[in-house]
UniProtKB/TrEMBL annotation:
Coiled-coil annotated residue ranges, if any: none
Identification of the protein by name: Type I-E CRISPR-associated protein Cas6/Cse3/CasE
Pfam families reported for this sequence: CRISPR_assoc
Gene that produces this protein: cas6e
NCBIfam families: casE_Cse3
Biased composition (Basic and acidic residues): 160-172
Source organism of the structure: Arthrobacter horti
Region (Disordered): 144-176
Top-level taxonomy: Bacteria, Bacillati, Actinomycetota, Actinomycetes, Micrococcales
InterPro entries per UniProt: CRISPR-assoc_prot_Cse3
Amino acid sequence: MYLTKFDINAARRGARYLLGNPQAFHAAVLSSFPPRPTGAGEGRVLWRVDRNGPHTALYVVSPDEPDLSALNEQAGWSTATWATRDYRPFLDRISEGQTWSFRLTANPVKQSLAPETKGMRLAHVTSAQQAAWLADRAGRNGFRISETSDGTPAVMVSSRSKDSFSRSDPHRGGRSSRVTLVRVQFDGVLTVNDREKFRDALVSGFGRGKAYGCGLMTLMRAE
């Protein structure tokens, strides 16, 4: 497994196009890897875009090392602007009881039970609903949200966005369908309860929308 950070030059036309089109960004990320046979090993390609003031960065977790030369020509700087490191030593150091600061971009949705929309996936709307969605998935993924000194969950919804774009639908003979994606960035502190479950979640992703920049969690040492 590999973790890659790529600095995006958001002033470039190609970068602006990708940042406004998750379908195209998904294709650009996948084109950085050779075709991978089914059942070739653990994990999948996960990616996330972070916007921190004037700095925009792409993070990728992947089973194979990427070659982002083509992406750099379209959305990077004048020199190579990415760095890749082996993710496995870090994953191997994760253990129960550790506390980490985390960032996760996810697509919090629920299944509708209303008769007129039964079975449809609907986005959670409020910050409280979105934080509850994450807390509900914590246990099954080997962690719990830590608490602040006053006993409240140590997690916040730090940004939200909504994208609508066209996607070729193979179930409709290749005709385009409209996709609406609510993307939520969580920042917080967690404690590892089950090393194996948590490690698996870090390489397989959280929730839906993984093809469109959702599901990737990154960690830093908690202060």
